[in-house]
Amino acid sequence: MGYGRTHTVSAVGAGMIGERVGIAGWVEDSRAMGKVAFLTVRDHTGVAQAVARGDLAGEASAIPRQSAVRVTGVVQETRARGLDYEIAAEEVAVLARAAQMLPIDPIGRLESGIDARLNARALDLRSAKTASIFRLRAAVLSSLRSSLARLGFTEITTPKIIGSASEGGANLFSLEYFGRTAYLAQSPQLYKEQMTMGMGSVYEIANFYRAEKSHTGRHLSEFTSVDIEAAFMDDEDVMGVLEDLVATACADVSGSVEGGIGAPSRPFERVTYAQAVDELRAAGHDISHGDDLLDSHLRVIGEAHPGFYFLTGWPTALKPFYIMPRGDDPATSHSFDLQHGHLELSSGGTRLHDPDVLRERLREQGLDPAGFGPHLESFSWGMPPHSGWGMGLDRLVALAAGLDNVREAVLYPRDPDRLSP
Looking at per-residue confidence, does 255 or 356 come out higher? Predict the structure, then answer.
């Protein structure tokens, strides 16, 4: 290791009493008692206590908190509560001195609001609580990729600069592209459908963009989406994939953050759209079959179904043009949302694969099939029946970590008010 570091903090233990080590980290706290100074040093793996004596005690106690230091010394037994060892310091070298006045206190002795912490996110990550959220996020990503590989899915990467709306909607960010207007992708929908023609089962985990002026704790302008698409699977098949992934990821990170939801029970409950409407009417809501479910409606439904559940059988008119209607009831679609209480995590279903039917559906939704020419052309090359879904990773991580605001689960969130850092 460089800069005189021989071990990370967690690699040093009580079994190394008498050994000389070098650790590097940040001064979390310091206190002087006469000719003895105690330094609490944290790195990305844990916390250690260093004890400096004599002249070194004065030098060590003068180091500003959050300065980067290297401590070289001998491991010895300690009486400090919660620690297995301490280091009798022989040298405390300042590698980078921190300012006396910092924008936030990552230790939490002085509480800071989310805006102040986001403005100083790099410093905020020295908080054990904040760092644990992003280690959980990394573990969720690892779990999802592992499960998808186990299920035979291939990871793909689709364009984020596109020439037209992915799904024909508004709320697109536009940009100048060599004299033409281009847009930031909201979804990989059309590309991932095309990929099923040659690759069978595919997935993408990537950032996408939505120009909605929403200020809730659930919406961001830049968000990470987990998307799958699979040839020769129907909506029931991909719901099974989704349940497998979510349950496995939650189980894999269970207990890693205080307040998380833990491992869910399976199978996930199924609630039909028609059943949800009946429940809302029984609760006194004025709603008709065919109406969209508002956030206020989902909160009522979520109280009755507090865990994970699939909301299935949505009206075809409420779903995008590519969703397949049911053969026995064309007004109802082969579609679903995955909910946790009132929170929507994912939406998906069986897709239309007949290009003529797709053109008809586009017209029904007021969209011009000519704007989807290359996409529709690919459907004439033997597009297989296929299904898929998209899931908000940021929402899943926030849920797994027990967070109310999705911004807590994103390193540098982008919303209508935040463009930096």
Answer: 356
Q: How far apart are CA 176 and CA 274, in angstroms?
A: 45
What CA–CA distance (Å, rounded) separates 197 from 229?
Answer: 10
Strands 86-96 and 180-184: unpaired
How confident is the model at residue 258, as a pLDDT? 80
Q: Per-residue pLDDT for 170 more than 80? A: no
- Asked if residue 33 lies in contact with residue 49, where contact means CB atoms within 8 angstroms, the answer is no
Instruction: Please tell me whether residue 328 adopts helix, strand or coil conformation.
Output: coil
> To 10 degrees, what angle do helices 235-252 and 393-401 make?
40
- Residue whose entry in the numeric block shows the structure tokens 């690919």: 378
| Domain segments of the chain as ranges | 9-96, 123-409
Amino acid residing at 208: F
CB 389 within 8 A of CB 347: yes
pLDDT at 127 over 70: yes
Tell me if residue 350 falls in helix, strand or coil.
Answer: strand
Query: For the segment 64-80, what is each residue's pLDDT rounded down to a tens digit?
Result: 999 999 999 999 999 98
Evaluate whether 9-96 and 123-409 have a shared fold.
no
List all residues 6 or more positions away from 149 whose beta carbon is below 8 Å from its beta carbon.
Answer: none
User: What digits encode the pLDDT tens for the residues 328-355?
Assistant: 999 999 999 999 999 999 999 999 999 9
In the chain, the percentage of residues whose pLDDT exceeds 70 is 99
Residues 121 and 103 sit within 8 Å (Cβ to Cβ):
no
Fold of 123-409: BirA Bifunctional Protein; domain 2 (3.30.930)
Structure confidence at residue 2 (pLDDT): 81
DSSP 352: P
Q: Assess contact for 351 and 387: CB atoms under 8 A.
A: yes
Enumerate residues 6+ apart whose C-beta is below 8 A from 294.
none
CA atoms of 366 and 396, how far apart (whole Å):
33
Left, alpha or beta for 290 (phi > 0: left; psi -120 to 50: alpha)?
left
Give the C-alpha separation, 85 to 367, whole Å.
68
Topology of domain 9-96, per CATH? Answer: OB fold (Dihydrolipoamide Acetyltransferase, E2P) (2.40.50)
214: confidence class by pLDDT, cuts 50, 70, 90: confident
Query: What amino acid is encoded at 395 in this protein?
Result: R
pTM: 0.94
Going by C-alpha positions, the residue among 246, 269, 251, 265 that lies closest to residue 336 is 269
Residues 6+ apart with CB under 8 A from 84: 13, 14, 78
Q: Distance (Å, rounded) from C-alpha 23 to C-alpha 73? A: 9
